[in-house]
Amino acid sequence: LGEVKVLEAAGPSALARWPRNLALPGLGGVVARFSSQDSVATGVQHLIDGELGEPWVSSDQYLPQDIVFAFKDDQIASIDRVVLRPQGRAPETWPRRVSLSVSTTSLFDFAEVGVFELPKEARDHELRVGAEGRFLRVRVLENHGAPTTSLNEIRIFEGFATGYTSVLART
């Protein structure tokens, strides 16, 4: 057997409400801007590689650290939630306080949607956004006391609403 086709009946797709991580490069996600990275080996590309391998590490003690994401074809997306996963470095390097902001127009003009406290736990931390944006800024305001900051993975999940068309379905 060389190929199998699965066809859907007319109407809403069975995948219409499937969680979509818009940060993944394969779905058009990109890191558009960032404050620092320690080296290419610990660069921002690790934040959106879908693996719990090597984390991103900041290059210095400077806080805040900003990481700005853009979505497929520079489109405005409905952002339901962001999931942060610290892992791989000392827990003192993990984010303790994070701000999430969105912008529909610029890489530099953001509206804050919330500030979140993260406990020192190696698990997924789900942060509700509930806003639309062309860009999403994750700003690490504080870590747990280390001279550098690290984070393993960032996932950005698309929201669903009546009349909303996914950025993945738009041409």
Q: Please describe the biggest sheet, giving its number of strands, its sense, and whether it closes into a barrel.
A: 5 strands, antiparallel
Put simply, the count of helices is 0
Rounded to the nearest angstrom, the radius of gyration is 17 Å
The global form is globular
The percent range for strand residues is: 35-45%
Q: Low-confidence parts lasting 5 or more residues at pLDDT below 50?
A: none
The secondary-structure element order is EEEEEEEEEE
Subunit organisation of the chains:
single chain
Distance between the termini: 33 Å
Structural class: mainly beta
How many β strands by DSSP?
10
Summarize the structure.
By secondary structure, the protein is mainly beta. The protein is built from no helices and 10 strands. It has strands at residues 30-34, 56-57, 65-70, 77-85, 95-103, 111-117, 125-133, 135-143, 150-151, 153-158.
Task: Outline the secondary-structure elements.
Elements: E1 30-34, E2 56-57, E3 65-70, E4 77-85, E5 95-103, E6 111-117, E7 125-133, E8 135-143, E9 150-151, E10 153-158
Antiparallel strand pairs: 1-3, 2-9, 3-8, 4-7, 4-10, 5-6, 5-8
